[in-house]
Amino acid sequence: MTIAFFLFYFVVVFGIGLWSMRLTRDESDYWIAGGKLGWLLGGATIAATHVSAGSFIGTIGVIYTAGWSFAWIVLSIPLAYWFMAAVLAPRFTRTRELTVSAFLESRYESLALRRLSALVILVAIVVFVQAQIVASGLVGNIVFGISREWAMVAFTVVLLAYTAIGGLFAVVYTDFFQLVIMVAGVVLALPIAVHQLGGFEALFTYVRAVKPETFTWGSFPPMHLFTMGIAFTLGTVATPEKLVRLYSMKDMRHLRRGVLLAIVAATGLNLLIFVIALAAIVLFPGLPTGDLAMPMIARGVLPPLLGALLLAAIASAIMSTVSALMLVAGSALARDLYGTFRPASTERARILVGRIGVLLVGTAPLVLVLSGVGRGELVQFIVLLYTAIMASSFFVPVVLGVYWSRATKAGALASMTGGVLTCFAWKLFGASYVDPVLPGLVVSLLLFVAVSLVTTRPSEKAFAPFAS
Amino acid sequence: MNQEAFVFWGPFVGFAAIVVLYVIWMFWVERGDGE
Questions:
Q1: pLDDT tens digits, residue range A131-162?
Q2: For residue range A307-335, what is the model confidence (pLDDT) as tens digits?
Q3: For the whole model, what pTM was predicted?
Q4: Can you give the CATH number for the domain in which A268 is found?
Q5: CA A344, chain centre distance (Å)
Q6: Eight-state DSSP code of residue A109
Q7: Do B3 and A72 touch (CB under 8 A)?
Q8: Less packed terminus of chain A by CB within 10 Å, N or C?
Q9: Cβ contact (<8 Å) for B19 and A256?
């Protein structure tokens, strides 16, 4: 039953990819869906991209292991998207570039900045996608009984097939389908899991008995949560796959409504997933790692069809996030790196180079995982490093770039380089109770302002589109 | 409200409050824009 359901699922997403290829007529269609998305598709793709293995495998694992206080981190989601809709988007979308790196080039009149940012995107996404690939191996192993390695290969092939073929249109339509699967899986699974335990009152009583510290601040005291929340919020704002989605929306009105949909769907899904984690604490108290909580609920508690649906929801979370990332990393490689050295002469050739870029970038994380480089214990903490790198490098040059006319390319270059290096250095040598994003952001901001002020004032032309 | 209830309900209440405020903001902005 489960295998048949999954095969059906794969056929549908691949079919959507093929169908979407017909919608792609030029580069703008391939990378930003032509900037034609309405609130429903636009909001769904933001939500589906946001909800990743981090939610279904990693975060639920943290709730399972460390307690409910981590659930407070969910408030970073609506705050981040509100900030994007209210502060960033009104100015950022005035020029409709195809990539964030292209935005940086036009805003700061610097090709070097475009290439540097593309390199950061490539490296960071390969790190992040490895975590998602590992999670897909877990799901594939449970569903098909095949080795984790083969499961990872199968997921990557299916993902690359529809992403490379159909571009952002394929990603957006599959995201919509996958969001529906995610919502259906979680909304149907939750009451059944809770019912098995005798209702919500019984659930809480059992949780208190099995793990009394669950509803205390426990492993995540408020100050720790606050700094992690800042990391999540700022990282969400600055990730290129989210910024590109702002470009893909039809207008500000659709953007604001789409963001509302994304806020409700992504935050609501996370909260429901966390409650399922509570059920897992009672039903499977001795799991070797919290990452197994959701797959165990799907296999051990739910009826076969619903279990398959929940596993498909996990697969959807992984695929919708990875497809978005592959597309962004592919655009970084094909347009912002290769394309700036050897630009293709025709539209058709540029799209072909884009597809090859997506294929190359999509294969790299799999190779790294299979070679043993990219395996981690708790997926969520790898996700956290990704957001920290993104926030430390992109937040300041992008957000201040559309508001501060005095910002220069030297300031942006120094900010991005200093932010990323600080982030890495802190992760390796800094105090573990302070998230790397905070020192990374502080250094990024200081360098941005200081270097901009001591370098020559930029031309008025570069800032003109963003002036109020 | 005891600490246990606060820890549990906080994320739900915070989420609901932010959504309500967002909707109010959205209509306020669009009325102001005359869109």
A1: 788 888 888 887 788 888 899 998 899 889 88
A2: 888 888 888 888 888 899 999 999 998 88
A3: 0.90
A4: 1.20.1730.10
A5: 30
A6: T
A7: no
A8: C
A9: no
